[in-house]
Amino acid sequence: MNRDRTAFLFDLDGTLVDSVYQHVLAWKEALDREGIELSVWRIHRKIGMSGGLFTQILLRETGIEITEDRVARLRRWHAEAYARRAEAGGVRPLPGARELLAWLTDAGLPWAIATSGRMQTAAHNLEALGVDPARVPVVTRDDVRHAKPDPDLFVTAAARLGVDIQHALVLGDSIWDMLAAQRCRALGVGLLSGGYGQEELERAGAFRVYEDPADLLRHIDEVAARS
């Protein structure tokens, strides 16, 4: 009996690229520049959702007035701070990330990348990973109306691959990825490489959790269906 091949829809930061804490520090720098005091751990808990939603939630939690100018300013300062860290060599692929993508390509299994970041910041990560968005489907915040925890990014990525979202795996490091997967009825696979714990990811809907891309590749037959 023929089976549909599993499509892999990857988050980027903390899933394929070791960049979560660089984003956290970049947001911290932007918030400090705006005169907003917020602990680093509180920032980390929001990484993975869209930048716009992220800033609005943080500003609401601090009781500071939310204005379009302030949100745009924070987003611009974050992008600048993150770019400096990336260009200084602070952003690298996670262990096994390149090997995992190469294995999927060789096996004929479709894959795409769907990130809440905008291409302005995602470009640094894609370059570090060796992924050419002209050859691989890459969906960013620029391409959808709503980002995680809404499912739009992953639904769009599946559409670009020409696959049914219900035959896809969503692979991510945050609870926002797992919530988005549930909302589009895809199976969620969690990775610990972004700083969330196994129980958190499982409670958010992950049916399997691995340490990082290298660990996932070692257990690839647990999740990959090949026709």
UniProtKB/TrEMBL annotation:
<dbReference type="Pfam" id="PF00702">
    <property type="entry name" value="Hydrolase"/>
</dbReference>
<dbReference type="InterPro" id="IPR023198">
    <property type="entry name" value="PGP-like_dom2"/>
</dbReference>
<dbReference type="InterPro" id="IPR051806">
    <property type="entry name" value="HAD-like_SPP"/>
</dbReference>
<dbReference type="InterPro" id="IPR023214">
    <property type="entry name" value="HAD_sf"/>
</dbReference>
<dbReference type="InterPro" id="IPR036412">
    <property type="entry name" value="HAD-like_sf"/>
</dbReference>
<dbReference type="GO" id="GO:0016787">
    <property type="term" value="F:hydrolase activity"/>
</dbReference>
<protein>
    <submittedName>
        <fullName>HAD family hydrolase</fullName>
        <ecNumber>3.-.-.-</ecNumber>
    </submittedName>
</protein>
<dbReference type="InterPro" id="IPR006439">
    <property type="entry name" value="HAD-SF_hydro_IA"/>
</dbReference>
<keyword id="KW-0378">Hydrolase</keyword>
